[in-house]
Amino acid sequence: MSDANLNPEELGISEVDWQQTPASVRAVLGALHQRLAKLEEQLQLNSDNSSQPPASDKPRHPREKKGKLPSGKKRGGQPGHKGQSRPLVPPEGVSEFRVYKPENCCHCGAALNGTDPEPSRWQVIDLPAIEPVVIEHQVHRLHCRCCGKTTRGQLPAEVACSQFGSGVTAVVGLLIGQERLSKRQVQRVLKTLFGIKMAVGSVVARQQEISASLAEVYETVQGHVQQAANRNIDETPWREGWQRAWLWSVTTPAATLFRVADKRDAAVAQELLGASTDKVSTSDRFTAYNWLDDERHQTCWAHLLRTWRRFQLRDGPSVQVGGMLEIHTDYLLHRWRELQRGHLSWIDFLAEVPQHQRAIHHWLEVGARLDHTTTAATCRRLLRHQPMLWTFTRYEGVAPTNNAVERALRHGVIWRKLCYGTASERGSRFVERLLTVIATSHRQGHDVLNFLSAALQASRHGEVGPPLLLDLPLPTD
User: Number of folded domains in the chain?
Assistant: First the structure.
């Protein structure tokens, strides 16, 4: 390795001593200096300057707030702020009315009667004692007087499949998938809130029933994602059966798809996104997405912003290049936010794009000529794939960042930290289907509990489940 980037004066070595040092020793010192610089850079990595998640930051790491200057005001409501209060429930939604009338005048003591046409209303919301509804199905065995044989009645198939109704099973799915509770925590919640005793094994059985009832819905979302004009894709580590796996996610304006896979490569990405080449996809710069066409592939500017900050952890001119790229990127994203708030028109934003492109291109070229190997390689790669930096300016509706799918993955990341992943392939199918339904329901405005209950009822009756995507036709038998 070369010692060209090593400054002996910074190490306290005079020029005379350095010239007298054998070339082999100087080469070793140069290699050690580069290694030390790389280790020091890694020690300074956090969620602001790398792809590390915020949960990995140490408590002492200060969070930098950008984009808004301090106002000098105290926290909380400001003078003149319009307060908010809980709206009253309309009379038809009130369960019980309790009327309080004064009996005597508080001034003279005379008896009072009549009714106030506009009484003061004070509503208290409470929960009644919750008791489960238990339905006993009695199956009779009757003796025939003609042939002398016995015939036994039959339970309906939808009843015989489980001792727990679709409502209870849907609650199990909600507690596990949305609230991220463990199986034993679900067991305790059912006992505490509803008085329902359920063994841990029964909780697992309910998981598998939920998974089976959502299989067709999941396939529908996957088909929608592959045909959507604008997708965001990302992945995060997972664990299946104590083996390394990956939780993938693809989001569109209407739906979110999850997939647990044992690989993190281009084959999985192509399976999720489909073979069509006329769609726009947004991702980070991971090599699994290199097969995407640069003209229809948007790289995440939030990741680039963290890359510029990482440049500034290095010695030499990398600091200036990273600083200037960060300034121009900050301003570009600021103008994008102004566009989203309606303070800037799309035409005016596009008119500003060339100046951003020229500035960022200039500093990428400067970075590509640096002696720092890593900084130069990153800048050269971005220059080779420069069209994917500006895809969001060519297709209206495409965001410059991958934040949509990263927010979707955050739920799965927290779930993984709590349960350490899944123990089997069946468990992974349950996770990906339930996460898909929950995230898509939120985008579609569905009530998750009602949807799960309806899907379970349809599955038990052998019928087609409810549509998750309201803009798509119902599946046919």
Answer: 1
